[in-house]
Amino acid sequence: MNPDATDSNTSTPDASQLRRAIFTGAVGSALEYYDFAIYGLASALVFGHIFFPSLGTTGALLASFATYGAGFLARPFGGLFFGSLGDRKGRKLVLLLTIGLMGLATTLIGLLPTGGVGAVLLVLLRLLQGFGAGAEQTGAATLMAELAPPKRRGFYSALPFIGVFTGLALATITFRVMQEVLTQEEILAWGWRLPFLSSIVLIVMAIWIRLKLKESPVFKDLAQSKNVIQSPMRAVLRGARRPLLATSLMRMAETGCSTLYTTVAIAFLTGYAMKQGAASGANFGTIGTNAVLLASIASVITTPLFGALSDRVGRLVVYRAGAIFTALWAFPAWWMIDTGNPVLVCIAITGGFAIGANSMLGAQCAHFTELFGNRYRYSGVALSREVGAMLSGGIAPILGIFLVGMTGGSFWVLAAYTIVLAILTLIGTLLSIETRGRSLTDLEDAIGSGAVLSENERRSQQQVGVPAIDY
Fold first, then answer.
1. Backbone angles phi, psi at 14, to 5 degrees
2. Does pTM surpass 0.90?
3. What is the pLDDT of residues 60-99, one digit of tens each?
4. Residue 200 neighbours by CB under 8 Å, 6+ apart
5. How far apart, in whole angstroms, are the C-alpha atoms of residue 99 and residue 247?
6. Which residues contact 245 (CB under 8 A, 6 or more apart)?
7. CA-CA-CA-CA dihedral for 405, 407, 412, 413, to nearest 10
8. E strand map for 105-162
9. Whether the Cβ atoms of residue 51 and residue 104 lie closer than 8 Å to each other
10. Separation of alpha carbons 440 and 366, rounded Å
11. Burial class (CB in 10 A: 0-12, 13-18, 19+), 269
12. I need a surface site. Which of 217, 371, 398, 460 has the fewest CB within 10 A?
């Protein structure tokens, strides 16, 4: 792969369009992760008390995180639907639809009644939220990669994900302010609703910005050359199985460990580690949210830096290094979290999240986009990202809390789980191929044949004057 290769559609990008794409991608990612982080924090700290009070500590946490996982369950279906739409109708339309759907679901959660009826509606809204999120980040990453200068694609593709950590920080700050200003009784009675209702501000801002966004020049070129296919998701499943498997596995440690360090760690602290410090009256919920806030702020810096590093040394070098670090960091990190010491908890979560998980994210933003051919890029990236997210981020909190409960609050089981996720990701990198500098106008995948039609089908279509890749 030639790192100095140029892409005719992105070698001289429109500077104003590039800035607007960065901003709109960041705002959209901020809303998505504000939604998911608020929900994750509420699952760890609130929902068990107000929706599942009769299930006990572990049972309530499991039920809360099961509703959290429901959002991840819906994401692949959202990826299927919106990914196909993005390849057929363009990136901009999907970015508008997904942000509106996610925001609506989040706001309505803040209006739910408590108890059994509220729990049922909570699951339904969580499914709707996940369905909308199924192609949100994919759209931002794909559009950014298609606009960015090829030699700096890793850096620019990672910039919209600053919004991920901004959203996570906003969610964490919101809960920290509530913990300081409101009593626990007030939070459980009505305060928990405020973070969900306030998301309306981000929704309006994101939609307004995205209405001003132009379509991706790579997609416009595809449409003008009449190479748009009508069944992109079918094409992915028929001709892009290897990149699909590789990217799904590569998501395991990145998404799974992000969830473990930002939500399960807080639940672990509040539900189990507090037993060790009960005599001192330590507020373990506050310790956990402070650590996540610090890790989120650090990630604003580390993620684009790792993206830039992937421009210099290669996507897979950075990705594998992140997975290896994640595996080596697992036991020290969860031991530090188990101590309940505020400084050690901050070090553990910041290392696991800002360095481990987000070194992989920094390289992933450009790499996944470069792996898939232009005809079905949005569909391929969306499906792989969301299948990986469902199998890692969706299951991580449920399985993590279940394993901790089975072992009586032992930290080692979470460390072992983290290592398993890192190994699966390393396997995924072995199935992939270096893509730094690849032209995004290529119609074939970077790995595999990329063929979606047999030779007979191609010849048959050419004889009647139909483009060979259009069906």
1. -70, 115
2. no
3. 667 776 776 677 777 778 777 877 777 777 667 777 788 7
4. 103, 107
5. 24
6. 428, 431
7. -60
8. none
9. no
10. 10
11. buried
12. 460
